[in-house]
Amino acid sequence: MTEPVTVLVVDDQPPNLRLLDAVLSPRGYRVVTAGSGEQALAVLKDSAIDLVLLDVVMPGLDGHEVCRRIRADEATAFLPVVMITASGDQEKVHALVSGADDFVTKPFDQAELLARVASLAKIKRYQDTIRRQAEELASWNRELEQRVAVQVAELEKVSRLRRFLSPQVAELILESGDESLLESHRREIVVVFCDLRGFTPFAESSEPEEVIEVLTEYHAALGDLVFRFEGTLEHFTGDGLMVFFNDPVPCEDAPLRAIRMAVAMRTRIRDLAESWARRGHDLGFGIGVAQGFATLGRIGFEGRLDYAAIGSVTNLSARLCAEAEPWQILVTQRVFSSADGVAVGNDIGDLTLRGFSRPIRAFDIKGLDEARLSS
Asked: The domain 6-134 belongs to what CATH superfamily?
């Protein structure tokens, strides 16, 4: 149900107030009266008024001054005002200059008065509708901005997590809301380190654009496999790339998963190497895989955090990778033994690796026993 239009009638003569009330109230208007300009301004401050009928000649603040103050107040600047004036064009002009929307001359004609009041009341309703819609739009915009801010924050969070986690693991952490998995802790992991053979002379003898093109293809090929096997990307620097398994989300088959990923990487990079060779680039590929305990967690500074593994196991995988011949996958005895007999490889004996006081028994992975893998 539509609320009745509230009209403030301002006149210092009580008979005039009663007359206007008698004209307006039977037509459904709610009439509020004020006997002075000061009282009218007080009513406007405290009450919701739709239209003002304002007498010009009053003691104290006259109608012109009241109208000017109404227009000067942001809350009532667009409130419809009808001034009741004496006859004369000059007086009418003065009313309009003061800010009145319309005027009625004394003695007023009831039909004319009601027509002017109805017209301005309709305009006021339109203004209220526009203002309400503007407020709703502003509220929606604020809500939208808040939602966008939340979504941007989530996207930034996803982006940070996906820098080092597979999409599956990143989504798991985001859905659970539990980032405690990324706090510093100790765990046994399987680390895969790989890089290109012949990359340094290739980079020295090639144009930067050629190097970037090769690295782009190389990283895309390996990155897809890291995500497919749900490994955690620790870092990549140039042609070097390190991935580990069993953290931050545990996996029971970490050694086997690491070997399977390494074999898939070798196959994919062999295909790429053939295309590189046709472009005159002689590049090979080597991988090292080791298992051991490490301390893991986020490192860096605000705005640039990485998830890292600290421990000798990372150095061991890097040393095995450096020892590997082109297209060779070298793994420690522990990794080979833990692969459930699925990995097919040769025992190449003990290796003396820089930074390790004791020899390391290593195995050269030739492939996978597909029969056992599928059983």
From this structure: Response regulator (3.40.50.2300)
